Amino acid sequence: MITFDQMKYGPLGDAVEAAMPTSEADPIGVWAASLSLYSSAISRRVVLENKRPVVVWTVLAGRSAIGRKGYALGTARQVLHKAIGGYLEGRTKSGIGSGPALVDQLSQLELDTRGTEGGVDGRAMVVEEEWASVLRTQKRCSKFSTLFRTAWDGKTISNSTKKEGTTTVIRPLVGFHGHITPGEWAKYVSASDALGGSFNRLLPVLVERSKMLSYRHTPKFADGKALKDAYVWAITDERVISFSSEAGERFDELRAVIEDRMAEMPELLAAYMERAAEQVHRIAAVLAATERSTEISRGAIEAAWAFVEYSMTSVEKLVKDAALQGEVKPMKTMEELITDVLSRYGGEASSTTLLRALGTRGSAAAIKEAVEDMDTVEVYKLNQPGRGAKPIMYRLLKAEEPAKVEEAAPAPQEETPSVTLTETVEKRPHLRVITSPAPKPKKVKKPKKVKRVKAVTARPAAPVVPANPLAHLL
After folding, report:
1. CA distance 17 to 8
2. What is the largest CA-CA distance in the chain?
3. Taking the CA of residue 298 as centre, how many other CA atoms within 13 Å lie in the half-sphere pointing to its CB?
Protein backbone atom coordinates (compact mmCIF):
# COMPACT_ATOMS: atom_id res chain seq x y z
CA MET A 1 0.00 0.00 0.00
CA ILE A 2 1.61 3.22 -1.21
CA THR A 3 1.20 6.20 1.12
CA PHE A 4 1.73 9.94 0.94
CA ASP A 5 4.89 9.63 3.03
CA GLN A 6 6.55 7.72 0.19
CA MET A 7 5.81 10.38 -2.43
CA LYS A 8 6.32 13.66 -0.54
CA TYR A 9 9.62 15.39 -1.24
CA GLY A 10 11.35 18.73 -0.78
CA PRO A 11 9.77 22.07 0.14
CA LEU A 12 6.54 21.16 -1.66
CA GLY A 13 6.20 17.93 0.31
CA ASP A 14 6.87 19.80 3.57
CA ALA A 15 4.23 22.43 2.76
CA VAL A 16 1.54 19.85 1.96
CA GLU A 17 2.38 17.81 5.07
CA ALA A 18 2.09 20.94 7.26
CA ALA A 19 -1.40 21.64 5.93
CA MET A 20 -2.85 18.17 6.42
CA PRO A 21 -3.68 18.25 10.16
CA THR A 22 -6.28 20.96 9.48
CA SER A 23 -7.62 19.59 6.17
CA GLU A 24 -10.20 16.86 5.55
CA ALA A 25 -8.81 16.19 2.08
CA ASP A 26 -6.86 13.13 1.04
CA PRO A 27 -3.15 14.06 1.27
CA ILE A 28 -2.49 12.31 -2.06
CA GLY A 29 -5.22 14.44 -3.62
CA VAL A 30 -3.61 17.63 -2.28
CA TRP A 31 -0.24 16.39 -3.54
CA ALA A 32 -1.63 15.67 -7.02
CA ALA A 33 -3.27 19.10 -7.30
CA SER A 34 -0.12 20.83 -6.01
CA LEU A 35 2.06 19.10 -8.61
CA SER A 36 -0.25 20.22 -11.43
CA LEU A 37 -0.49 23.83 -10.26
CA TYR A 38 3.20 24.30 -9.48
CA SER A 39 4.48 22.52 -12.62
CA SER A 40 2.31 24.76 -14.78
CA ALA A 41 3.63 27.88 -13.09
CA ILE A 42 7.31 27.03 -13.69
CA SER A 43 6.87 25.57 -17.20
CA ARG A 44 7.87 28.73 -19.03
CA ARG A 45 11.60 28.43 -18.31
CA VAL A 46 12.06 25.00 -16.73
CA VAL A 47 12.48 22.15 -19.22
CA LEU A 48 13.85 18.61 -19.39
CA GLU A 49 17.12 17.76 -21.13
CA ASN A 50 15.20 16.80 -24.26
CA LYS A 51 13.50 20.25 -24.19
CA ARG A 52 10.12 18.76 -23.36
CA PRO A 53 7.94 20.62 -20.83
CA VAL A 54 7.62 19.67 -17.18
CA VAL A 55 3.85 20.08 -16.85
CA VAL A 56 2.14 17.32 -14.84
CA TRP A 57 -1.54 16.65 -15.55
CA THR A 58 -3.55 15.07 -12.74
CA VAL A 59 -7.14 13.94 -12.14
CA LEU A 60 -8.82 13.29 -8.79
CA ALA A 61 -11.30 10.41 -8.94
CA GLY A 62 -13.58 10.15 -5.93
CA ARG A 63 -17.22 9.89 -5.02
CA SER A 64 -19.19 13.09 -4.61
CA ALA A 65 -18.88 14.71 -1.17
CA ILE A 66 -16.93 11.92 0.52
CA GLY A 67 -14.10 12.14 -2.03
CA ARG A 68 -13.28 15.70 -0.90
CA LYS A 69 -11.93 16.54 -4.37
CA GLY A 70 -12.76 20.23 -4.15
CA TYR A 71 -11.36 20.32 -0.61
CA ALA A 72 -8.08 18.89 -1.92
CA LEU A 73 -7.81 21.52 -4.64
CA GLY A 74 -8.64 24.28 -2.19
CA THR A 75 -5.96 23.09 0.21
CA ALA A 76 -3.39 22.94 -2.61
CA ARG A 77 -4.21 26.50 -3.65
CA GLN A 78 -3.71 27.72 -0.10
CA VAL A 79 -0.43 25.83 0.20
CA LEU A 80 0.84 27.54 -2.97
CA HIS A 81 -0.84 30.93 -2.52
CA LYS A 82 2.23 32.88 -1.39
CA ALA A 83 4.39 31.34 -4.09
CA ILE A 84 2.20 31.33 -7.21
CA GLY A 85 -1.10 32.90 -6.11
CA GLY A 86 -0.80 35.72 -8.64
CA TYR A 87 -0.15 33.29 -11.49
CA LEU A 88 -3.18 31.16 -10.60
CA GLU A 89 -5.49 34.17 -10.37
CA GLY A 90 -4.50 35.44 -13.79
CA ARG A 91 -3.96 32.21 -15.75
CA THR A 92 -6.57 29.70 -14.54
CA LYS A 93 -9.00 28.67 -17.28
CA SER A 94 -11.95 26.25 -17.42
CA GLY A 95 -14.73 25.06 -19.70
CA ILE A 96 -12.54 24.53 -22.77
CA GLY A 97 -14.78 22.19 -24.74
CA SER A 98 -13.15 22.03 -28.18
CA GLY A 99 -9.80 21.95 -29.93
CA PRO A 100 -10.23 25.36 -31.59
CA ALA A 101 -11.15 26.88 -28.20
CA LEU A 102 -7.94 25.47 -26.70
CA VAL A 103 -5.83 26.98 -29.49
CA ASP A 104 -7.62 30.34 -29.24
CA GLN A 105 -7.18 30.56 -25.46
CA LEU A 106 -3.44 29.87 -25.59
CA SER A 107 -2.94 32.12 -28.60
CA GLN A 108 -4.72 35.01 -26.88
CA LEU A 109 -2.47 34.70 -23.83
CA GLU A 110 0.58 34.99 -26.09
CA LEU A 111 -0.86 38.02 -27.90
CA ASP A 112 -1.67 39.76 -24.62
CA THR A 113 1.95 39.52 -23.47
CA ARG A 114 3.67 40.24 -26.78
CA GLY A 115 5.80 43.36 -26.45
CA THR A 116 5.79 43.34 -22.65
CA GLU A 117 8.93 43.56 -20.53
CA GLY A 118 8.79 39.91 -19.57
CA GLY A 119 8.26 38.75 -23.14
CA VAL A 120 5.69 36.40 -24.63
CA ASP A 121 4.05 34.24 -21.96
CA GLY A 122 1.52 31.63 -23.04
CA ARG A 123 1.21 29.69 -19.77
CA ALA A 124 -2.27 28.55 -18.77
CA MET A 125 -3.65 26.37 -15.99
CA VAL A 126 -6.84 24.53 -16.99
CA VAL A 127 -8.87 23.40 -13.97
CA GLU A 128 -12.04 21.37 -14.60
CA GLU A 129 -13.85 20.63 -11.33
CA GLU A 130 -16.76 19.18 -13.33
CA TRP A 131 -14.65 17.33 -15.85
CA ALA A 132 -17.41 14.90 -16.86
CA SER A 133 -19.58 17.67 -18.30
CA VAL A 134 -16.63 19.04 -20.26
CA LEU A 135 -15.74 15.56 -21.54
CA ARG A 136 -19.26 15.23 -22.88
CA THR A 137 -18.81 18.46 -24.84
CA GLN A 138 -15.30 17.59 -26.00
CA LYS A 139 -16.50 14.34 -27.55
CA ARG A 140 -18.35 16.38 -30.17
CA CYS A 141 -15.08 17.91 -31.39
CA SER A 142 -12.96 15.63 -33.56
CA LYS A 143 -9.91 17.87 -33.12
CA PHE A 144 -9.78 18.13 -29.35
CA SER A 145 -8.07 14.83 -28.45
CA THR A 146 -5.27 15.36 -30.97
CA LEU A 147 -4.61 18.97 -29.95
CA PHE A 148 -4.81 18.10 -26.25
CA ARG A 149 -2.21 15.34 -26.59
CA THR A 150 0.04 17.55 -28.69
CA ALA A 151 -0.11 20.34 -26.11
CA TRP A 152 1.12 17.93 -23.40
CA ASP A 153 4.03 17.01 -25.68
CA GLY A 154 4.90 20.70 -26.00
CA LYS A 155 4.65 20.65 -29.79
CA THR A 156 3.07 23.25 -32.04
CA ILE A 157 -0.71 23.24 -32.26
CA SER A 158 -2.87 25.18 -34.72
CA ASN A 159 -6.41 25.64 -35.99
CA SER A 160 -7.61 26.94 -39.34
CA THR A 161 -10.87 28.63 -40.28
CA LYS A 162 -12.01 30.20 -43.54
CA LYS A 163 -12.83 33.49 -41.83
CA GLU A 164 -9.75 34.02 -39.63
CA GLY A 165 -7.15 31.85 -41.34
CA THR A 166 -4.69 29.79 -39.28
CA THR A 167 -4.07 30.38 -35.57
CA THR A 168 -0.84 28.81 -34.31
CA VAL A 169 0.66 28.27 -30.86
CA ILE A 170 4.31 27.34 -31.37
CA ARG A 171 5.05 26.34 -27.79
CA PRO A 172 1.92 25.47 -25.83
CA LEU A 173 2.38 25.71 -22.07
CA VAL A 174 -0.79 24.33 -20.55
CA GLY A 175 -1.33 22.63 -17.21
CA PHE A 176 -4.37 20.50 -16.42
CA HIS A 177 -6.19 19.33 -13.30
CA GLY A 178 -9.63 17.71 -13.26
CA HIS A 179 -12.18 16.07 -10.96
CA ILE A 180 -14.43 13.12 -11.77
CA THR A 181 -16.40 10.41 -9.99
CA PRO A 182 -15.65 6.71 -10.63
CA GLY A 183 -19.12 6.34 -12.16
CA GLU A 184 -18.53 9.21 -14.58
CA TRP A 185 -15.14 7.73 -15.46
CA ALA A 186 -16.86 4.51 -16.52
CA LYS A 187 -19.34 6.48 -18.65
CA TYR A 188 -17.17 9.09 -20.38
CA VAL A 189 -13.63 7.67 -20.55
CA SER A 190 -14.02 5.34 -23.52
CA ALA A 191 -11.77 2.46 -24.51
CA SER A 192 -11.18 3.90 -27.98
CA ASP A 193 -9.93 7.20 -26.55
CA ALA A 194 -7.66 5.33 -24.15
CA LEU A 195 -6.17 3.21 -26.93
CA GLY A 196 -5.64 6.38 -28.96
CA GLY A 197 -3.50 7.87 -26.20
CA SER A 198 -5.87 10.56 -24.98
CA PHE A 199 -5.61 9.54 -21.33
CA ASN A 200 -2.06 8.29 -20.87
CA ARG A 201 -0.94 11.91 -20.45
CA LEU A 202 -3.08 12.11 -17.31
CA LEU A 203 -2.32 10.78 -13.83
CA PRO A 204 -5.63 9.81 -12.19
CA VAL A 205 -5.59 9.09 -8.45
CA LEU A 206 -8.37 7.72 -6.27
CA VAL A 207 -9.12 9.95 -3.28
CA GLU A 208 -11.34 9.94 -0.22
CA ARG A 209 -11.84 11.99 2.93
CA SER A 210 -8.93 11.70 5.34
CA LYS A 211 -10.77 12.79 8.49
CA MET A 212 -13.79 14.69 9.81
CA LEU A 213 -13.00 18.01 11.50
CA SER A 214 -15.15 20.34 13.56
CA TYR A 215 -16.65 23.28 11.68
CA ARG A 216 -14.81 25.49 14.18
CA HIS A 217 -11.40 24.31 12.99
CA THR A 218 -9.01 26.87 11.50
CA PRO A 219 -6.85 25.78 8.53
CA LYS A 220 -3.14 26.30 9.05
CA PHE A 221 -0.43 26.46 6.40
CA ALA A 222 3.34 26.82 6.29
CA ASP A 223 4.79 30.26 5.57
CA GLY A 224 5.63 29.21 1.98
CA LYS A 225 8.90 31.13 1.81
CA ALA A 226 10.91 28.20 0.49
CA LEU A 227 8.41 27.61 -2.31
CA LYS A 228 8.28 31.30 -3.18
CA ASP A 229 12.07 31.49 -3.42
CA ALA A 230 12.07 28.38 -5.60
CA TYR A 231 9.45 29.89 -7.91
CA VAL A 232 11.45 33.10 -8.33
CA TRP A 233 14.52 30.98 -9.13
CA ALA A 234 12.54 28.99 -11.71
CA ILE A 235 11.20 31.96 -13.68
CA THR A 236 14.23 34.25 -13.73
CA ASP A 237 16.40 32.17 -16.04
CA GLU A 238 16.34 29.13 -18.32
CA ARG A 239 16.64 25.96 -16.22
CA VAL A 240 17.43 22.64 -17.89
CA ILE A 241 16.85 19.79 -15.45
CA SER A 242 18.99 16.65 -15.82
CA PHE A 243 19.59 13.40 -13.90
CA SER A 244 22.44 12.83 -11.52
CA SER A 245 24.33 9.64 -12.43
CA GLU A 246 22.65 7.69 -9.61
CA ALA A 247 19.20 9.01 -10.49
CA GLY A 248 19.76 8.18 -14.17
CA GLU A 249 20.58 4.56 -13.36
CA ARG A 250 17.49 4.25 -11.20
CA PHE A 251 15.36 5.78 -13.94
CA ASP A 252 16.55 3.13 -16.41
CA GLU A 253 15.61 0.42 -13.91
CA LEU A 254 12.15 1.90 -13.49
CA ARG A 255 11.60 2.05 -17.24
CA ALA A 256 12.20 -1.70 -17.40
CA VAL A 257 9.85 -2.29 -14.44
CA ILE A 258 7.10 -0.24 -16.08
CA GLU A 259 7.40 -2.01 -19.44
CA ASP A 260 7.42 -5.45 -17.82
CA ARG A 261 4.30 -4.54 -15.89
CA MET A 262 2.58 -3.29 -19.04
CA ALA A 263 3.45 -6.48 -20.92
CA GLU A 264 1.45 -8.50 -18.39
CA MET A 265 -1.63 -6.26 -18.70
CA PRO A 266 -4.45 -6.30 -21.24
CA GLU A 267 -3.86 -3.79 -24.03
CA LEU A 268 -6.67 -1.51 -22.84
CA LEU A 269 -5.19 -1.24 -19.36
CA ALA A 270 -1.62 -0.86 -20.59
CA ALA A 271 -2.72 2.02 -22.85
CA TYR A 272 -3.18 4.26 -19.79
CA MET A 273 0.43 3.70 -18.71
CA GLU A 274 2.39 4.24 -21.91
CA ARG A 275 3.74 7.58 -20.65
CA ALA A 276 4.46 6.40 -17.09
CA ALA A 277 8.25 6.65 -17.46
CA GLU A 278 8.10 10.20 -18.75
CA GLN A 279 5.66 11.08 -15.97
CA VAL A 280 8.28 9.96 -13.45
CA HIS A 281 10.87 12.12 -15.24
CA ARG A 282 8.65 15.21 -15.21
CA ILE A 283 7.61 14.93 -11.57
CA ALA A 284 11.22 14.37 -10.48
CA ALA A 285 12.25 17.49 -12.43
CA VAL A 286 9.54 19.57 -10.72
CA LEU A 287 10.65 18.32 -7.30
CA ALA A 288 14.26 19.21 -8.14
CA ALA A 289 13.13 22.71 -9.12
CA THR A 290 11.44 23.17 -5.72
CA GLU A 291 14.94 22.72 -4.26
CA ARG A 292 16.36 25.24 -6.76
CA SER A 293 18.45 22.54 -8.36
CA THR A 294 18.96 21.59 -12.00
CA GLU A 295 19.97 18.05 -11.00
CA ILE A 296 17.49 15.32 -10.19
CA SER A 297 18.45 13.29 -7.12
CA ARG A 298 17.79 9.63 -6.41
CA GLY A 299 15.31 10.71 -3.70
CA ALA A 300 13.32 12.79 -6.18
CA ILE A 301 13.12 9.81 -8.54
CA GLU A 302 11.84 7.50 -5.79
CA ALA A 303 9.20 10.01 -4.68
CA ALA A 304 8.06 10.56 -8.28
CA TRP A 305 7.84 6.80 -8.87
CA ALA A 306 5.73 6.31 -5.72
CA PHE A 307 3.16 8.81 -7.03
CA VAL A 308 3.10 7.34 -10.56
CA GLU A 309 2.81 3.81 -9.19
CA TYR A 310 -0.14 4.88 -7.03
CA SER A 311 -1.75 6.38 -10.14
CA MET A 312 -1.21 3.13 -12.07
CA THR A 313 -2.93 1.22 -9.27
CA SER A 314 -5.81 3.72 -9.31
CA VAL A 315 -6.24 3.31 -13.08
CA GLU A 316 -6.38 -0.48 -12.73
CA LYS A 317 -9.21 -0.17 -10.21
CA LEU A 318 -11.11 2.44 -12.24
CA VAL A 319 -10.94 0.38 -15.43
CA LYS A 320 -11.90 -2.89 -13.71
CA ASP A 321 -14.80 -1.24 -11.88
CA ALA A 322 -15.97 0.26 -15.18
CA ALA A 323 -15.94 -3.21 -16.76
CA LEU A 324 -17.81 -4.61 -13.76
CA GLN A 325 -20.61 -2.09 -14.25
CA GLY A 326 -21.45 -3.92 -17.45
CA GLU A 327 -22.28 -7.02 -15.39
CA VAL A 328 -24.22 -5.28 -12.63
CA LYS A 329 -27.38 -3.38 -13.51
CA PRO A 330 -26.26 0.26 -13.44
CA MET A 331 -28.33 3.19 -12.21
CA LYS A 332 -30.29 4.82 -14.99
CA THR A 333 -28.93 8.03 -16.42
CA MET A 334 -31.02 11.19 -16.68
CA GLU A 335 -31.43 10.58 -20.42
CA GLU A 336 -32.83 7.10 -19.75
CA LEU A 337 -35.19 8.39 -17.04
CA ILE A 338 -36.58 11.08 -19.35
CA THR A 339 -37.15 8.53 -22.10
CA ASP A 340 -38.99 6.21 -19.69
CA VAL A 341 -41.31 8.97 -18.44
CA LEU A 342 -42.17 10.18 -21.95
CA SER A 343 -42.89 6.60 -23.01
CA ARG A 344 -45.31 6.18 -20.09
CA TYR A 345 -47.19 9.32 -21.13
CA GLY A 346 -47.67 8.30 -24.72
CA GLY A 347 -44.51 9.94 -26.01
CA GLU A 348 -45.26 13.51 -24.93
CA ALA A 349 -45.41 15.43 -21.65
CA SER A 350 -45.14 18.96 -20.32
CA SER A 351 -42.17 20.10 -18.28
CA THR A 352 -44.35 20.15 -15.16
CA THR A 353 -45.47 16.57 -15.70
CA LEU A 354 -41.92 15.46 -16.39
CA LEU A 355 -40.64 17.06 -13.19
CA ARG A 356 -43.37 15.48 -11.08
CA ALA A 357 -42.69 12.05 -12.55
CA LEU A 358 -38.94 12.28 -11.90
CA GLY A 359 -39.39 13.55 -8.34
CA THR A 360 -36.12 13.86 -6.46
CA ARG A 361 -34.18 12.19 -9.27
CA GLY A 362 -34.16 15.27 -11.48
CA SER A 363 -34.42 19.04 -11.59
CA ALA A 364 -35.40 21.49 -14.32
CA ALA A 365 -31.74 22.33 -14.95
CA ALA A 366 -30.74 18.65 -15.12
CA ILE A 367 -33.56 17.90 -17.58
CA LYS A 368 -32.60 20.82 -19.79
CA GLU A 369 -28.92 19.81 -19.85
CA ALA A 370 -29.72 16.16 -20.60
CA VAL A 371 -32.21 16.94 -23.39
CA GLU A 372 -29.68 19.14 -25.17
CA ASP A 373 -27.66 16.01 -25.94
CA MET A 374 -30.64 13.81 -26.85
CA ASP A 375 -31.44 13.43 -30.53
CA THR A 376 -34.59 11.46 -29.66
CA VAL A 377 -36.42 14.25 -27.81
CA GLU A 378 -37.96 17.40 -29.26
CA VAL A 379 -38.61 20.49 -27.10
CA TYR A 380 -41.19 23.07 -28.12
CA LYS A 381 -43.65 25.59 -26.70
CA LEU A 382 -47.32 24.76 -27.07
CA ASN A 383 -49.39 27.51 -28.65
CA GLN A 384 -52.68 27.68 -26.83
CA PRO A 385 -55.44 30.27 -26.72
CA GLY A 386 -55.56 32.81 -23.94
CA ARG A 387 -52.96 34.68 -22.00
CA GLY A 388 -50.17 33.29 -19.85
CA ALA A 389 -46.92 31.48 -20.42
CA LYS A 390 -46.87 28.80 -23.06
CA PRO A 391 -46.13 25.38 -21.55
CA ILE A 392 -42.84 23.75 -22.53
CA MET A 393 -43.45 20.34 -24.05
CA TYR A 394 -41.13 17.36 -24.49
CA ARG A 395 -41.89 14.90 -27.26
CA LEU A 396 -40.25 11.55 -27.92
CA LEU A 397 -39.31 11.22 -31.57
CA LYS A 398 -39.41 8.04 -33.58
CA ALA A 399 -36.14 6.77 -34.97
CA GLU A 400 -36.92 7.99 -38.47
CA GLU A 401 -38.63 11.23 -37.40
CA PRO A 402 -36.41 14.34 -37.49
CA ALA A 403 -36.74 16.99 -34.80
CA LYS A 404 -38.76 20.05 -35.78
CA VAL A 405 -37.60 23.55 -35.04
CA GLU A 406 -40.90 25.38 -35.50
CA GLU A 407 -43.50 25.64 -32.77
CA ALA A 408 -46.34 23.15 -32.84
CA ALA A 409 -49.75 24.47 -33.87
CA PRO A 410 -52.50 24.21 -31.24
CA ALA A 411 -55.05 21.48 -31.64
CA PRO A 412 -58.68 22.66 -32.23
CA GLN A 413 -60.69 22.81 -29.03
CA GLU A 414 -63.36 20.40 -30.22
CA GLU A 415 -60.77 17.70 -30.98
CA THR A 416 -58.88 17.89 -27.69
CA PRO A 417 -58.77 14.42 -26.08
CA SER A 418 -60.43 14.05 -22.71
CA VAL A 419 -57.46 12.15 -21.27
CA THR A 420 -55.16 14.51 -19.33
CA LEU A 421 -51.36 14.36 -19.28
CA THR A 422 -51.27 13.42 -15.63
CA GLU A 423 -53.16 10.15 -16.18
CA THR A 424 -51.01 7.07 -16.45
CA VAL A 425 -52.25 4.91 -19.30
CA GLU A 426 -50.48 1.82 -20.59
CA LYS A 427 -51.11 2.75 -24.21
CA ARG A 428 -52.89 6.05 -24.57
CA PRO A 429 -54.14 7.09 -28.02
CA HIS A 430 -52.21 10.13 -29.19
CA LEU A 431 -54.34 12.45 -31.29
CA ARG A 432 -52.58 14.46 -33.91
CA VAL A 433 -54.11 17.06 -36.20
CA ILE A 434 -53.10 16.33 -39.75
CA THR A 435 -53.94 18.96 -42.31
CA SER A 436 -54.31 17.28 -45.68
CA PRO A 437 -53.36 19.29 -48.75
CA ALA A 438 -56.23 20.98 -50.57
CA PRO A 439 -57.50 18.93 -53.53
CA LYS A 440 -56.53 20.18 -56.92
CA PRO A 441 -59.47 21.77 -58.77
CA LYS A 442 -60.91 19.57 -61.48
CA LYS A 443 -60.66 20.85 -64.99
CA VAL A 444 -64.03 21.96 -66.29
CA LYS A 445 -64.65 20.88 -69.82
CA LYS A 446 -65.53 23.72 -72.09
CA PRO A 447 -68.78 23.27 -74.03
CA LYS A 448 -68.35 22.41 -77.62
CA LYS A 449 -68.94 25.18 -80.07
CA VAL A 450 -72.26 24.92 -81.87
CA LYS A 451 -72.17 25.83 -85.51
CA ARG A 452 -74.60 28.52 -86.38
CA VAL A 453 -77.02 27.65 -89.19
CA LYS A 454 -78.19 30.50 -91.42
CA ALA A 455 -81.92 30.93 -91.52
CA VAL A 456 -83.31 30.16 -95.00
CA THR A 457 -86.69 31.54 -96.09
CA ALA A 458 -88.78 28.78 -97.57
CA ARG A 459 -89.97 29.48 -101.09
CA PRO A 460 -93.70 28.89 -101.92
CA ALA A 461 -94.33 25.64 -103.60
CA ALA A 462 -95.11 25.77 -107.33
CA PRO A 463 -98.66 24.98 -108.28
CA VAL A 464 -99.35 21.48 -109.33
CA VAL A 465 -100.23 21.32 -113.03
CA PRO A 466 -102.51 18.43 -113.87
CA ALA A 467 -101.45 16.12 -116.56
CA ASN A 468 -104.60 16.98 -118.70
CA PRO A 469 -105.28 20.68 -118.63
CA LEU A 470 -108.86 20.18 -119.87
CA ALA A 471 -109.74 17.53 -117.38
CA HIS A 472 -111.62 19.97 -115.10
CA LEU A 473 -113.91 20.92 -117.89
CA LEU A 474 -115.07 17.45 -118.57
Report:
1. 8
2. 176
3. 5
DSSP string, 335-366: HHHHHHHHHHTTTEEEHHHHHHHHGGG--HHH
Q: At what angle do helices 334-344 and 351-358 cross, to 10 degrees?
A: 110
| The pLDDT of residue 461 | 56
Q: What is the DSSP string of 421-463?
A: TTS--SS--------PPPPPPPPPPPPPPPPP----PPPPPPP
Give 208's contacts (C-beta < 8 A, 6+ positions apart): 26, 62, 63, 66, 67, 68
- As to burial, measured by CB atoms within 10 angstroms (0-12 exposed, 13-18 middle, 19+ buried), residue 295 is middle
Angular region, 469: left φ>0, alpha ψ -120 to 50, beta rest: alpha
With H, G, I as helix, E, B as strand and everything else as coil, classify residue 223.
Answer: coil
Is the dihedral angle over the CA atoms 4, 300, 178, 197 positive or is it negative? negative
Which range, 1-15, 151-165, 186-200, 421-435, is most confident? 1-15
53, β-bridge pairs: 47
Give the whole-angstrom CA distance, residue 62 versus residue 30.
Answer: 13
52-88 confidence digits (pLDDT tens) = 999 999 999 999 989 999 999 999 999 999 999 999 9
Q: Return the amino acid letter for 221.
A: F
Radius of gyration in angstroms for the set of CA atoms belonging to the chain, rounded to a whole number: 39
Using CA atoms, how far residue 431 sits from 101, 411, 414, 416, 424, in Å, is 46, 9, 12, 8, 16
8-state DSSP, 38: H
* Distance between CA atoms of residues 136 and 68, nearest Å: 23
Tell me the pTM. 0.70
Helix (H) or strand (E) holding 59: strand 57-61
| H/E segment holding residue 370 | helix 364-372
Give dist(CA 298, CA 291) in Å, integer.
14
DSSP state of 471: G
Other Cβ atoms closer than 10 A to 344: 15
